[in-house]
Amino acid sequence: MSARPAPALVRPALVGAWLLVAVAGTYARMLRSHEVPPPNQAHLDRIPAAASAWIGTDVRFDPRIYQVLSADTTLMRLYRAPETGSELWLFVAYFRGQRTGAQIHSPKNCLPGGGWNIVSSEEVRMPLGDRQLAANRFLIARGREQQVVYYWFMTRAGVIRNEYVLKLDLVRNALLRRPTDAAFVRLSSPVVAGDLAETDRQMVRFVALLSPGLLEALPFPAREAF
Fold first, then answer.
1. Please, are residues 40 and 104 in contact by the beta-carbon 8 Å criterion?
2. Domain that includes residue 201, residue range
3. Residue 16: CB partners within 8 Å, gap ≥ 6?
4. Residue 43 maps to a domain
5. Does residue 112 form part of some domain?
6. CA distance 24 to 146
7. How confident is the model at residue 149 (pLDDT cuts 50, 70, 90)?
8. 3-state DSSP: the chain helix, strand, coil percent, rounded to 5?
9. Distance (Å, rounded) from C-alpha 13 to C-alpha 52?
10. Which of 43, 55, 89, 208 shows its CA 20 to 30 Å from the CA of 28?
């Protein structure tokens, strides 16, 4: 006969599992019961389809991806600069309320699921409005292909870089009965002729060009959230 686990060892594991279930249930109920409609929402159609030499073309995902995202409105746009052949991808997702099942998915989880390896990550400063605000920068690779990815989150508190801080902001707003709407902004580009520095310069210049329209489209302030 196989030995039975000692009760003293089983009991803490069961208690821990029940605590996780209880916390998850409480968290879900809190989001449902404290949801406050936002006074104004995103208008992603206000993001310019052209910025200086860049011409944008809207692209649609597979319908199944939208079901997974559960965002209220999204924008996926490919910007091209005809003279140089450069390409930039802009993706924006707006969530009217971050209820359970409709919360922002972190690229840290989504990119590996798409076959991309995160080679490096760091904090960068992005020109949003009249300020330089914190964002995330990833260098990712899939086979011989490399891309640079910049992304950040925006809420009623401002710009947030860290996923855990985003969760804390969500809980705080829910408890204080404030709107819990939020946006995810991602910009990506193939590495330009193997030159990472030039790719970064190009992306920063593009954000500066697009910044006024982006801020007009999203109902959030251009400031550091915390």
1. no
2. 34-217
3. none
4. yes
5. yes
6. 38
7. very high
8. 35, 35, 30
9. 59
10. 43
In the structure encoding, which two tokens stand for residue 7, read together?
A: 């009760």
pLDDT value, residue 34: 58
- The domain that holds 65 is classified in CATH as 3.40.1000
Q: Are 98 and 181 in contact (CB under 8 A)?
A: yes
The total domain count for the chain is: 1
Instruction: Give the torsion sign (CA, 54, 57, 62, 68).
Output: positive
Place of tokens 């404290």: 34
How far is C-alpha 158 from the chain's CA centre?
13
- Rounded to whole angstroms, the Cα distance separating 126 from 107 reads 18
Could you tell me which of 77, 116, 107 has the C-alpha nearest to residue 206?
A: 77
| Residue 85: count of CB within 10 angstroms of its CB | 8
Which distant-in-sequence residues (6+ apart) come within 8 Å of 140 by Cβ?
A: 111, 116, 117, 118, 119, 146, 147, 148, 149
And the tokens for 161?
């870089």
Q: Alpha helix (H) ranges present in 34-150?
A: 63-69, 107-113
Asked, for residue 170, whether it belongs to a domain, the answer is yes
φ, ψ (nearest 5 deg) of residue 152: -160, 170
> pLDDT, tens digit, for every residue of 7-63?
454 455 454 445 444 444 455 455 555 578 888 899 999 999 999 999 999 999 888
